[in-house]
Amino acid sequence: MLCASGRLLAAQAATTLPAPPQAPGPALHCRRRELHFPGYPELPSCDPLAGRLVRQSVPLGRRAIRRRGKMPPATGGGLAESELRPRRGRCGPQASRAAGRDVAARAAARNPKGPAWGSRRFETASRWALLALVTLLSFATRFHRLDEPPHICWDETHFGKMGSYYINRTFFFDVHPPLGKMLIGLAGYLSGYDGTFLFQKPGDKYEHHSYMGMRGLCAFLGSWLVPFAYLTVLDLSKSLSAALLTAALLTFDTGCLTLSQYILLDPILMFFIMAAMLSMVKYNSCADRPFSALWWFWLSLTGVSLAGALGVKFVGLFIILQVGLNTIADLWYLFGDLSLSLVTVGKHVTARVLCLIVLPLALYTATFAVHFMVLSKSGPGDGFFSSAFQARLSGNNLHNASIPEHLAYGSEITVKNLQMAIGYLHSHRHLYPEGIGARQQQVTTYLHKDYNNLWIIKKHNTNSDPLDPSFPVEFVRHGDIIRLEHKETSRNLHSHYHEAPLTRKHYQVTGYGINGTGDSNDFWRIEVVNRKFGNRIKVLRSRIRLIHLVTGCVLGSSGKVLPRWGWEQLEVTCTPYLKETLNSLWNVEDHINPKLPNISLNVLQPSFPEILLESHMVMIWGNNGLKPKDNEFTSKPWHWPINYQGLRFSGVNDTDFRVYLLGNPVVWWLNLLSIVLYLLSGSIIAVAMQRGTRVPAEVAGLSQVLLRGGGQVLLGWMLHYFPFFLMGRVLYFHHYFPAMLFSSMLTGFSPLLCSRHSVGHPPAALCLGLGLLAPGQGHTRGGNPEPPPGHRLQLLPLPPSGLRDGWSPGPGPPKSYGRTKVARLMGILRPLQRFQPGSRNFPEEPAGTQYWTLPAVRKLPKEPEEFCCPPGPSCGSAPGTEASIGESRSSVHSTTEDSTLQAAPWCAAQRRMGARGWMWVRVYVRAHCPYPFGTQTV
């Protein structure tokens, strides 16, 4: 049935056709309304015979398949079948129910080979049964021997310990967001673990401590990777064999299985990544019924999964990027759909903003709110954060503390660097080794609370005790020249022109002097940055710089880790570059002075947005500063796809239960081969689409599946793999496993590459290859070779590659069968079935006549004689007028019983505008002349 826009377009096309001769006689009728050009007989476009006899030939291009509909049928299929095509707001079985029983019955009669209702039910039941089997196998393999080995394996020492911290509510620092560790702690708490196991090093026995709950959570979430991948590939490829192959690869991959059996963040991360991918694919498949309950469900679940992936590790940003690119492309298409009003487009944009931006951000922020609420006690991670942050932790010396507000001479203080994760100014009795500057006492920065962090602030020109009750209180002011004396060793903070241990062109900072007596290199000028509180220095609030009086350099920390002789603490230098950076800014944290009144620090506690921002800055700094541990197998990204080197989980001694993380070589190398083959096939398809090559409908549909479905999976693999080449942090083999999931799903598409309808099959590959050599559609070639009179052959000019043939007399096809076969493979010539004499379609033809037809018509004539000449020995070949009539669904060589039309041309065209703006055009041609088309057809 034609919509209003279709009738309008068809009417405009009709105005380009000449007025034909009036043909008396009754016109054939059909059950459906037809588009009828005035003066031409009606053609029954729903002729079931035509739809069954001609194999479909469609262009290999963007519009070969409706983006939001189903794939075109593999064979035949006229416009009558469009009654069952999904309309806007309905898809799948809903469209069939809406069409009615009579329409479904007529469709079944026209296509007797179509699947019966019982077979469809059997197919659906089979898919559910296979999904259940795949899920059962996945759970069985992941939970098999989950308790072995009964000791700590690899990073269980970190994430198991962090689970204990959540149970004990002890604050800690980690470079990853908190969701994964919170889930591990929750699983341990629910399974009876009391949080008392120390998790000191790999190999420590668990003994009586309950650890199976935490391992069980990781195995449970890791088991869902296989069914998620199965459903994703099934939805993208519409191929059960592709989905089963993907499930088999992931089920029996030893690396993916091993990674899911231990207390790690990776199975939790991969669970949310695959859930986000599946949800995105599902809501894409429901795009033809937007704003339905199912559409909202999958869109919202995508946002929830994105929040989960990012809440476990920052690697979740890669799946967020993939969903974002998919959303941008989707909205770009919607903006170009003129059948949608701006209000509808605005609703689509609003829905995606709410579900894919607002909802994930809200959930991600909520995980940090719970994280800060649970971890309320002071712990080993305090020193990574600012003094104001520490003031909110119970048990910290700044929590509910009362200290003097303004800094005075004689006070015992700790000085903290404002750069994240630098720590406190620190010194100890160890000296710098020989050859490292002056052999004097080391000065470093240390991240943790320690007695060696205490310094006494004194005037530069006196050794008297400022705490003597006989001396009045004297406050330290901006611009004062001071000495900092280390309380434990009584050595002064000192600098000179010797080079720093690690940083070139920086000066060494040491501890020098005896009982506070040194030289002029111990003098520093204190400056307050952005003096908001006047000349006095306020504890915790004032940002200060210490400038060396002799060299003019600024005290700072490079953040570089010293070797073992420096106890792997951070380097302190005096930089001659006076540019203000966080590395050279400090604040006074602890302040002890019995001569001064105290104030409460509760007013200094930061707000939630401030601690959220600070925690992210510390995590980013920590990620970039990760260094490899002793005896660890680090790797490079190019090692990962080839399974070059694994990772030792446990078992240093020969007698230990040893676990080694390594992927199944067959699976991993097959994945790598599939990526290469897909890139080659995808390149051929993409170039063929750009060249406008015409191929059979089966090849066109399969090519669209490979490009769109496989392209999404390939994009996921690239986004989860290539960014690691740009990272400066230490990398391990397990970082590749999210990308490995996508490469396994891409391998699942390999049965489609081997299909007889795929580009990998020889006839289809030949068709595509020759199509790449074909000239552009806008070029006009010479006239067609003249067939004998009575030989009804419609020719498409072949490419200039030596394939142009002459025709031998007789009713059959050309005798040059080799080149004719190539032409048939290219879709240039296509045979019809033989007809019996007296059939209602061709009553005047003898039995056994072979007919050929064009796959499509791309030129419409200006005049009748240019379209089809009267029967005769010669006929003109004037070029016609190109018509932008969209892509053709089929081209059928048809006729009518009216004898008065045997010597006269006629044409009837139908256009139908789809719900998404796609156009199908049918052109029927009937002509008795040596040159059926005087113009080029493509």
From TrEMBL:
<keyword id="KW-0256">Endoplasmic reticulum</keyword>
<feature type="domain" description="MIR">
    <location>
        <begin position="534"/>
        <end position="591"/>
    </location>
</feature>
<dbReference type="Pfam" id="PF02366">
    <property type="entry name" value="PMT"/>
</dbReference>
<dbReference type="GO" id="GO:0005789">
    <property type="term" value="C:endoplasmic reticulum membrane"/>
</dbReference>
<comment type="function">
    <text>Transfers mannose from Dol-P-mannose to Ser or Thr residues on proteins.</text>
</comment>
<keyword id="KW-0472">Membrane</keyword>
<dbReference type="InterPro" id="IPR003342">
    <property type="entry name" value="ArnT-like_N"/>
</dbReference>
<feature type="region of interest" description="Disordered">
    <location>
        <begin position="778"/>
        <end position="818"/>
    </location>
</feature>
<feature type="transmembrane region" description="Helical">
    <location>
        <begin position="293"/>
        <end position="321"/>
    </location>
</feature>
<comment type="pathway">
    <text>Protein modification; protein glycosylation.</text>
</comment>
<keyword id="KW-1133">Transmembrane helix</keyword>
<feature type="transmembrane region" description="Helical">
    <location>
        <begin position="666"/>
        <end position="688"/>
    </location>
</feature>
<comment type="function">
    <text>Transfers mannosyl residues to the hydroxyl group of serine or threonine residues. Coexpression of both POMT1 and POMT2 is necessary for enzyme activity, expression of either POMT1 or POMT2 alone is insufficient. Essentially dedicated to O-mannosylation of alpha-DAG1 and few other proteins but not of cadherins and protocaherins.</text>
</comment>
<dbReference type="Pfam" id="PF16192">
    <property type="entry name" value="PMT_4TMC"/>
</dbReference>
<dbReference type="GO" id="GO:0004169">
    <property type="term" value="F:dolichyl-phosphate-mannose-protein mannosyltransferase activity"/>
</dbReference>
<feature type="region of interest" description="Disordered">
    <location>
        <begin position="878"/>
        <end position="900"/>
    </location>
</feature>
<keyword id="KW-0808">Transferase</keyword>
<feature type="compositionally biased region" description="Polar residues">
    <location>
        <begin position="887"/>
        <end position="900"/>
    </location>
</feature>
<dbReference type="Pfam" id="PF02815">
    <property type="entry name" value="MIR"/>
</dbReference>
<keyword id="KW-0677">Repeat</keyword>
<keyword id="KW-0328">Glycosyltransferase</keyword>
<feature type="region of interest" description="Disordered">
    <location>
        <begin position="61"/>
        <end position="117"/>
    </location>
</feature>
<feature type="domain" description="MIR">
    <location>
        <begin position="404"/>
        <end position="460"/>
    </location>
</feature>
<feature type="transmembrane region" description="Helical">
    <location>
        <begin position="353"/>
        <end position="374"/>
    </location>
</feature>
<feature type="transmembrane region" description="Helical">
    <location>
        <begin position="179"/>
        <end position="199"/>
    </location>
</feature>
<feature type="transmembrane region" description="Helical">
    <location>
        <begin position="709"/>
        <end position="727"/>
    </location>
</feature>
<feature type="domain" description="MIR">
    <location>
        <begin position="473"/>
        <end position="529"/>
    </location>
</feature>
<protein>
    <recommendedName>
        <fullName>Dolichyl-phosphate-mannose--protein mannosyltransferase</fullName>
        <ecNumber>2.4.1.109</ecNumber>
    </recommendedName>
</protein>
<dbReference type="InterPro" id="IPR036300">
    <property type="entry name" value="MIR_dom_sf"/>
</dbReference>
<comment type="similarity">
    <text>Belongs to the glycosyltransferase 39 family.</text>
</comment>
<dbReference type="InterPro" id="IPR032421">
    <property type="entry name" value="PMT_4TMC"/>
</dbReference>
<feature type="transmembrane region" description="Helical">
    <location>
        <begin position="259"/>
        <end position="281"/>
    </location>
</feature>
<dbReference type="InterPro" id="IPR027005">
    <property type="entry name" value="PMT-like"/>
</dbReference>
<feature type="transmembrane region" description="Helical">
    <location>
        <begin position="211"/>
        <end position="231"/>
    </location>
</feature>
<dbReference type="InterPro" id="IPR016093">
    <property type="entry name" value="MIR_motif"/>
</dbReference>
<keyword id="KW-0812">Transmembrane</keyword>
